[in-house]
Amino acid sequence: xxxxxxxxxxxxxxxxxxxxxxxxxxxxxxxxxxxxxxxxxxxxxxxxxxxxxxxxxxxxxxxxxxxxxxxxxxxxxxxxxxxxxxx
Length: 87
Known about the structure:
- This protein has helices at 14-24, 39-50; strands at residues 2-8, 26-29, 32-36, 59-65.
- The protein is α+β, with helices and mostly antiparallel strands.
- The model has no long low-confidence stretch (mean pLDDT 87).
C-alpha cells in the first residue's frame, strides 16, 4: 500500500521519530514521509513509535491508498527530500 505519514511530536522526540520513519518510508518534508509499505511493516513502525511517543502530547496521521498512482502530487518550491529510484 502507499502511505503518507505526518507526525507532530515533542522537540525531545523529533530525532527518534525522524530516524524511525526514515527506516520505513521516504522523507519528503519536515515531519512528512511517503512510500510503499506492507501492512506488517506499517504495524512494526507503529509499535516502535509507541515506545517513545507521549500519547497525550504527540500525534501521527497516516493516509493510506492502494498506490501512488491514484494521487496527484504537486510540489511548489524546493523539494526537500528528493527520492532516488533504484532498479
